[in-house]
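Per your request, structure below.
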């Protein structure tokens, strides 16, 4: 059976990065874009160029480095945004401008435009974008709550003005599968010129239906799915790339559509996005959760041993998890480490391998067996060369006899500084020491500890979320010593807040860009 191609449009770096706390550094954005390009994503929405210098630079650089993927930037419905977007994406082999405006009654009220004024704005801005770039995507934000007649009218205007892709966003996650399919189907059947463009679906997950709604839209005629890795995104997130891609792959019998995604790269990018965004993947998350391929009950384990298909509809290898997991130990050498990392999907340059090898030896000295998950945590360790604050050493006194005390040395902007601080427990003492050495006004919003693998010598992954004047940043780190992991995660969050601070003078924060200028 020949299958229709469905384009995968990934917006992890734009809609995903918009989720509160998900801040990525410039280097991390470039790295994620490269992984997306390598895995076969058709269109990468790399950012919102008008939002900040940082976003503009990231989109430009991603455009320059792109290999196969089309690189897209977001722009509100005004010439300034569109020009800035073009300046950033024009370096790509295949650039795209994505411009949008909220068309539902609630969204029309924000820029205070009546229906005719908004229609004119859409005509003018799409025409402007098309004069710059021959690949233009247009989105009526909150399409699923826009009056049907008006939606048809504005979609027709955008097509006539030169849009090549029409995206129908379910901005607030309001629609349901049958309605999602019908909406796309009816638009294609009704709007003049609809056959000459690609219809896209962009679903949010407020009711937990984003993936189902996206797949239904494809059945209705959409040929582009907008999604993010791990479903990252505002509020409850977006359609998850891994879910739609695997659903299309496994249920090709009822959904005969194919994507160009190399699914074996899914697990690697999922883990990388979890680390750099600071949004850990829930254990029971479809496809990429830690438990997605774990079988605990006797009946399930017995069935699995006899025939894996009894309780699995896909193989772990299909998404890039190695089937067998032989742990490494302290006698394993560089070659074994390289081979294991290659098996896990990492192709490290020699200097990166050396760094990981040093960390591996250090871990293997403290831990009998180093499992795949331990190795991934090592590869993803967050000590970026861009960090202003670094942990040099930490010694903590804790136990039943208080007060708990932390002796700490930090390197701040290249200079070593040290202090001793007490606190209500070892973690509190540690955080107080950081605060004494690097005073800041950020508030701790979340502190979470998880074991990476089993056993009392398991590495702990610590996640810390901090807030300062409305800016939120998340830090993460892993170590066999929970207090050391906590210190590193806290410092990682501070470094990320410093990055946000640099790029957030008024009007220059992605999360602060108002849709009012539409
Ligand atoms: O959810 C939404 O409507 C968006 C638009 C900018 C496409 O993200
Ligand atoms: Zn969105």
């Amino acid at each position: 059976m020949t299958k229709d191609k469905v384009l995968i449009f990934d917006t992890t770096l734009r809609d995903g990065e918009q989720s509160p706390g998900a801040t990525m550094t410039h280097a991390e954005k470039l790295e994620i874009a490269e992984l997306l390009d390598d895995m076969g994503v058709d269109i990468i929405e790399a950012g919102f160029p008008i939002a900040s210098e940082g976003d503009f630079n990231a989109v430009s650089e991603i455009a320059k480095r792109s290999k196969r993927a089309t690189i897209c930037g977001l722009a509100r419905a005004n010439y300034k945004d569109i020009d800035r977007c073009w300046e950033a994406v024009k370096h790509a082999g295949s650039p795209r401008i994505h411009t949008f405006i909220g068309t539902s009654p609630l969204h029309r009220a924000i820029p205070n435009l009546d229906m005719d004024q908004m229609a004119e704005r859409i005509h003018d801005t799409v025409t402007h974008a098309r004069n710059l770039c021959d690949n233009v995507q247009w989105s009526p934000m909150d399409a699923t709550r826009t009056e049907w007649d008006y939606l048809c009218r504005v979609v027709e205007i955008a097509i006539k003005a030169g849009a090549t892709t029409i995206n129908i966003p379910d901005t607030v996650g309001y629609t349901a599968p049958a309605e999602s399919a019908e909406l796309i189907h009816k638009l294609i059947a009704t709007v003049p010129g609809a056959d000459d463009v690609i219809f896209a679906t962009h679903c949010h997950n407020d009711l937990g239906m984003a993936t189902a709604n996206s797949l239904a839209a494809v059945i209705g005629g959409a040929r582009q799915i907008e999604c993010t890795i791990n479903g990252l995104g505002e509020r409850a997130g977006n359609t998850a790339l891994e879910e739609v891609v695997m659903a299309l792959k496994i249920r090709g019998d009822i959904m005969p559509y194919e994507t160009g995604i190399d699914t074996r790269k899914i697990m690697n990018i999922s883990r990388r996005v979890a680390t750099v965004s600071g949004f850990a993947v829930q254990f029971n998350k479809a496809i990429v959760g830690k438990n997605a391929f774990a079988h605990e009950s006797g009946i399930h384990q017995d069935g699995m041993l006899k025939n894996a298909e009894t309780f699995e509809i896909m193989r772990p290898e299909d998404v890039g998890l190695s089937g067998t997991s032989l742990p490494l130990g302290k006698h394993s050498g560089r070659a074994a480490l390289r081979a294991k990392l290659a098996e896990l999907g990492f192709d490290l340059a020699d200097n990166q391998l050396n760094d990981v090898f040093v960390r591996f030896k250090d871990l293997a000295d403290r831990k009998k067996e180093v499992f795949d998950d331990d190795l991934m945590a090592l590869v993803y360790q967050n000590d970026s060369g861009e960090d202003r604050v670094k942990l040099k050493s930490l010694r903590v006194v804790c136990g039943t006899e208080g007060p708990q005390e932390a002796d700490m040395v930090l390197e701040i902007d290249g200079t070593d500084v040290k202090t001793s601080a007490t606190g209500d427990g070892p973690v509190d003492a540690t955080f107080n020491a950081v605060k004494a050495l690097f005073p800041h006004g950020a508030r701790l919003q979340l502190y979470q500890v998880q074991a990476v693998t089993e056993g009392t010598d398991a590495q702990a992954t610590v996640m810390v979320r901090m807030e300062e004047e409305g800016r939120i940043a998340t830090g993460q780190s892993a170590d066999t010593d929970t207090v050391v992991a906590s210190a590193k995660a806290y410092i990682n969050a501070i470094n990320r807040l410093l990055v946000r601070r640099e790029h957030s003078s008024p009007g220059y924060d992605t999360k602060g860009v108002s849709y009012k200028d539409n």
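Confidence is low (pLDDT under 50) at residues 505-511.

Regards,
D.
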